[in-house]
């Protein structure tokens, strides 16, 4: 499933192609919204929220989409061949004079009032790439259930939004724990994201989380595209996707749960 950084990049591309332009074509190919017509309205912005995409449109409407496993948004110029998949897999088309955005295999596509966005993304925790990122809140969310495996807690979008298997693995390696260790047993969890202060500096773990996601904090914008995020290929990973060779070295011992006796 695409993670927060991938969705962030998709939002940036969509924003660049659509924001500030009047829609000349609109086609939502889902039964509930098949009759909705957005032509003549301007796209205000496209912004990510965790793994969700919010396309805000003039008139107080937001097109909410989620890629899940197979979905994607492709952008085409006039005359360019659409190559995102067969036509029967198209779920959304948003076009203007210069670009057409086509959503393929979108499992979640709905039109909501912008003021009601909280109904679709309000359950999410702080977004690692969003203006609402709050390390203290994320840590507090993670520690609500001390017995929960850390890998499972990191993947729960209610704790913090945007983390998937790649970043889960990188975070666990960075703090030298196995994903199935109870989060309450992790060494000094408060050291991951210390409280903010005038001289606050992120720990190595916090830097690792942000570095694998973005070069800096990303705020929601209207007049320009969201800040650029380095592609994953530009940021070396310690463990995720490595088929050969040992993980990047760490001098700290691995922390894992005590092995239970087979006779216990």
Automatic annotation (TrEMBL):
Claim: Repeat is one of the keywords in the record: no
Pfam hit, one: Fapy_DNA_glyco
EC number annotated for this UniProt entry: 4.2.99.18
CDD domains according to UniProt: AcNei2_N
GO BP: base-excision repair
Residue span, Formamidopyrimidine-DNA glycosylase catalytic domain: 2-79
Keyword terms, alphabetized: DNA damage, DNA repair, DNA-binding, Endonuclease, Glycosidase, Hydrolase, Lyase, Multifunctional enzyme, Nuclease
UniProt entry tagged with the keyword Cell inner membrane: no
Signal peptide start-end: none
Biased composition (Low complexity): 203-238
Classification via PANTHER family: ENDONUCLEASE 8
Record protein name field: DNA-(apurinic or apyrimidinic site) lyase
Organism listed in the record: Streptomyces hundungensis
Name of encoding gene: nei
């Amino acid at each position: 499933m695409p993670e927060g950084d991938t969705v962030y990049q998709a939002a940036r591309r969509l924003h660049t192609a659509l924001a500030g332009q009047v829609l000349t074509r609109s086609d939502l190919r889902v039964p509930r919204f098949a009759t909705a017509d957005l032509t003549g309205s301007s796209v205000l912005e496209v912004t990510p929220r965790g793994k969700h995409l919010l396309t805000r449109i003039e008139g107080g409407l937001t097109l909410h989409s989620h890629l899940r496993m197979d979905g994607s948004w492709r952008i085409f110029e006039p005359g360019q061949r659409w190559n995102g998949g067969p036509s029967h897999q198209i779920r959304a088309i948003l076009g203007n004079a210069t670009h057409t955005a086509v959503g393929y295999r979108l499992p979640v596509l709905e039109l909501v009032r912008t003021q009601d966005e909280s109904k679709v993304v309000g359950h999410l925790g702080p977004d690692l790439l969003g203006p609402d990122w709050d390390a203290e809140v994320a840590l507090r969310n993670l520690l609500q259930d001390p017995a929960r495996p850390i890998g499972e807690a990191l993947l729960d979008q209610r704790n913090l939004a945007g983390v998937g298997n790649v970043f889960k693995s990188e975070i666990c390696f960075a703090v030298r724990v196995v994903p199935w260790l109870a989060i309450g047993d992790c060494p000094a969890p408060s050291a991951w994201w210390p409280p903010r202060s005038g001289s606050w500096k992120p720990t190595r773990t916090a830097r690792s989380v942000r570095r694998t996601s973005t070069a800096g904090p990303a705020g929601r914008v209207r007049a320009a595209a969201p800040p650029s995020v380095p592609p994953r290929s530009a940021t070396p990973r310690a463990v995720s996707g490595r088929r050969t060779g040992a993980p990047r070295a760490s001098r700290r011992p691995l922390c894992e749960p005590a092995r239970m006796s087979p006779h216990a």
